[in-house]
Amino acid sequence: MDKEYDYVILGTGLKECILSGLLSVSGRKVLHMDRNDFYGGESASMHPLDKLFEKFDDPEGTKDSFGNGRDWNVDLVPKFLMADGGLVKLLVHTGVTRYMQFKQIEGSFVYYRGGTIYKVPADDKEALMSGLMGIFEKRRFRAFLVFVLNYSFDDPTTWDGMDPKTSTMEDVYSKFGLGKDTQDFTGHAIALYLDDEYMTQPCEEPLRRIKLYYDSLSRYGKSPYLYPLYGLGELPQGFARLSAVYGGIYMLNKPVDEIVMENGTVCGVKSEGEVVKTKAVIGDPSYFPERVTKVGQVVRCICILSNPIPNTQDSSSCQLIIPQNQVNRKSDIYVCSMSHTNSVTAKDYYLAIVSTTVETSDPLAELQPGLQLLGTIQKKFLWVSDQFEPQDDVKDSKVFISKSYDATTHFETVCEDIMNMYEQITGEKFDPSSISLADVDVES
Amino acid sequence: MAARGTAQRPNGAVQGKICQFKLVLLGESAVGKSSLVLRFVKGQFHEYQESTIGAAFLTQTVCLDDTTVKFEIWDTAGQERYHSLAPMYYRGAQAAIVVYDITNQDTFGRAKTWVKELQRQASPNIVIALAGNKADLSSKRMVEYEDAQSYSEDNGLLFMETSAKTAMNVNDIFLAIAKKLPKSDNASAGPAVGRQPRGVDLRETNEPHQGGCCK
Predict the structure, then answer these.
(1) DSSP-derived 3-state class of residue A414
(2) Transmembrane residues, as ranges (chain B) (predicted)?
(3) So what's the pLDDT on residue A221?
């Protein structure tokens, strides 16, 4: 451990492991440490089930209930992969996809006022059949969808007066005369916005997101979402292996005593009395309490069920979005559900993880609209996590800190943070063509 | 490499009598894990083999009478060094070779720990072989053949002394594993026959990609 490294990385969460992988592949010397004796930090999946009970200080809880504890892999931060999204592209480019197996999430649903749950239409034909909208609204929505799917950012003839930079999403909605509820469902269940701030922004980003949803949907059919067998904890492990294959050194169970600075720039990391020299440090906020700012909180409730979520066509896995306006909130409530078919629960059990951005002093009450859709809940674990962002003055310090995992139910913001960090760290944009699969795939 | 996760091969890998299995290597650093694989897969040996770098998987096939057994071989990529092997490594492994160095008693002790770890973490039907490597250095032997053999018998392991340098018993140990692995659907025990791909292949419909990620 006495060598000098280009990067010492602290914490084996997904963001840190992806960065570790990308940096190792490009020839940098990486030392990756974690204070825990398992991979993943907050992106770990708790396994076996006892670990989850321990985590929530309820070690006596399981005993003989909930089947074989070893069948469980419970995510702390629930998210799905968009099938055509950034993380899938990274998995394919780096070859990490070969360490893992993925399944489609079976359905994508949206909750509407009055307690009805609707399937998010998978295409324009489903939109016409859906009970989600009245007959005239359906036609308007169909026209809108056809417009978006044909929209090309490079081809102004497809814009129909809607300039990606100057027209707002509000303008686009009103052009097609979409009602408030349809806007809600489009912005939140398809474009996957957490709140309504996007409405007054240029329409480029929302249109890209709607396209991403449908491009993802078209890859495998049932829903735009993928999910790894054995839970999200496989993702950091996969990228850690990539890093190790390219020379990254891994140390778990390694407490970090101090980040050693010299004239405002990092020069080493002290662990168990020993200092490792490094040119830069990368890590998650928990390793740098005095260099991050709390920007909010996310509340998550992990629920064990013995039934699929009612009114979701008995889906063994699904996403259910409760748009903010439908329950008079500022941010959406998300429900992610997985089961034995995803190798994350024992047979005949289901997981539903309900989450939202905290708006009041009673986070549990804020989740109620989600919790009440789940039927009988066998066991609940409530978890409020602080959201941290790095302070701005870290540029000279060469201390690069990731943001906490937000309330979104997919990995797009995770990828954005990683790409921004990569650029800050290396001074160059990440170029996927710099990784060729041939390098990774050794075959006889 | 042949398709892990390539969608929908019914009943896994039994396909024209080609069976694919995941095999993992375990053992202390510098006992010759990578050298064994390199000898088996490429017929090569390097006296000063660098610590494992740059190999995600190696694959090699072994032909039995009526079956081709394809091994997908996972090396530790050095993650064993500070006891930081990920659970993913063992996941779905149907065979393991636990390697020690016959000239180093400590590595034999560590091998026993790895065997315990496999019995705890890996699937219950995993086929485990113990390899006493560097058998060409028998003048410096510190681990007696009989000790390792009786330990293996007690624990139901295959056992051979091997030399990646001279190729002694290298093919043989893989062949012995291939013979012991269940290769038909009808084998009543064991849930998995060969590697059972489930789910979707992310690469399947992926077009050549030009733009940046995540944008």
Answers:
(1) helix
(2) none
(3) 82
Shortest CA gap B134–chain A (Å): 24
ipTM: 0.84
**Any chain A CB within 8 A of the CB of B89?**
yes
Q: Pick from B42, B55, B213: which is nearest to A86 by CB?
A: B213
B77–A contact, CB cutoff 8 A: yes
Query: Quick check: B200 and A240 CB within 8 A?
Result: no
Read off φ and ψ for residue A154, nearest 5 degrees.
Answer: -90, -5
Query: Which residue is listed with tokens 């809880």?
Result: A61
- The total of other beta-carbon atoms located within 10 Å of residue A359's CB is 15
Residues of chain B with C-beta less than 8 angstroms from the C-beta of A442: 54-58
Q: Are B112 and B142 in contact (CB under 8 A)?
A: no
Chain A: nearest CA to B42, how far in angstroms? 7
CB atoms within 10 A of CB A402: 26
CA atoms within 13 A on the CB side of A196: 13
Residues of B in contact with A438 (CB under 8 A): none
Spell out the residues 6+ positions from residue A368 whose beta carbon is closer than 8 angstroms to its own. Answer: none
Query: pLDDT digit string (tens) for A360-415?
Result: 999 999 999 999 999 999 999 999 999 999 997 667 899 999 999 999 889 999 99
Helix, strand and coil content of chain A, in percent to the nearest 5, comes to: 35, 25, 40
Interface test with B, best of A245, A340, A414, A433 (most B CBs within 10 A): A245
Cβ A42 vs Cβ A76: under 8 Å: yes
Structure tokens at A411: 């990995």
Tell whether B12 lies on the interface with A, counting CB pairs under 8 A: no
Q: What is the pLDDT of residue A77?
A: 94
pLDDT of residue B188: 34
Which tens digit of pLDDT belongs to each residue from A319-373?
A: 999 999 999 999 999 999 999 999 999 999 999 999 999 999 999 999 999 999 9
State pTM to two decimals.
Answer: 0.90
Residue in chain A closest to B210 (alpha carbons) equals A433
Per-residue pLDDT of A81-133, as tens digits, reads 999 999 999 999 898 998 999 999 999 999 987 889 999 988 778 888 888 88
